[in-house]
Amino acid sequence: MITDYKITEIFCAVDEFCKEFDKQIEKKSLMSSDGKVRRYRKASLSDSEIMTILIVFQFGSFRNFKHYYLFFIRQHMKDSFPNAVSYNRFVELESRVFFQMMFFLNLSAFGRCTGISFVDSTMVPVCHNLRRYANKVFKGLATDGKGTMGWCHGFKLHLVCNDRGEIITFCFTGANVDDRDPKVWAVLAKALYGKLFADRGYISPKLFDMLFEDGVHLVTGIRANMKNKLMPMWDKVMLRKRCIIETINDMLKNTAQLVHSRHRSVNNFIMSMIAALAAYCFFDNKPQALQGYYIENTKQLMLF
Length: 304
What we know:
This protein is of the alpha/beta class. Helices cover 42% and strands 14% of the residues. Strands 1, 2, 3, 4, 5 and 6 form a six-stranded mixed β-sheet that branches. Helix 1 packs across helix 2 and helix 2 crosses helix 10 (266-280). The chain is globular. The N and C termini lie far apart (47 Å).
């Protein structure tokens, strides 16, 4: 169960960002024909309160958002959210903070590239495979794709993290999009430099050359039908630590509830995904590649 102290910590971080965000928006707000600033109707809940409620839900204490909002936010947290609106009204207000959430992720929540990065993708199914033809919510948007766990009807989340377990950037595509697609890397490669460690699914001479021109060295393993090649010991060691990105995917799916089949709106599905990424940034048990005695071993390897 998430503690009240953690909720206060999340709210303070979000509220400080929203205050600065509102200041910048007011400076560049559109003017009407008579020279007056256009009126922006405020809701009973502030943007920071809406964002906090969305993020706290993704900590995995509740499996149903309606039960979480009615019995936890409006009853247990009544003193913290005295102006909480009805459940139906809150569902309408979710998409109102989309841009604030995206700016908050990129400017405050996400980490920065340290020269050592890991990349991986994970399937985000929206329904069971047998119900893919009957799904109406994501009709025309969700696609069929095959991953390591089999076929999936939905989307694919491409993640890049650093050696500290912090998410650097992400890209959201259809389930049938290849991990080596140039359009995907046009988004991911903007925030990267140094070495990027990936699995065998990213083996591609074209992708390697494209990233190398941008200052990114792609390091992957080799397939069984490929010739062996020499690799520095440091790269071999860090390639084995690629499980860090797989741990993040597991935490997003099992703890932050990134995957479930209860979505009834495309907008709220996107907000739920963004809130899950934001919630992970506040987790205290992020996996790290260099910890404890492993740091001393890596220092010795760097001397050779």
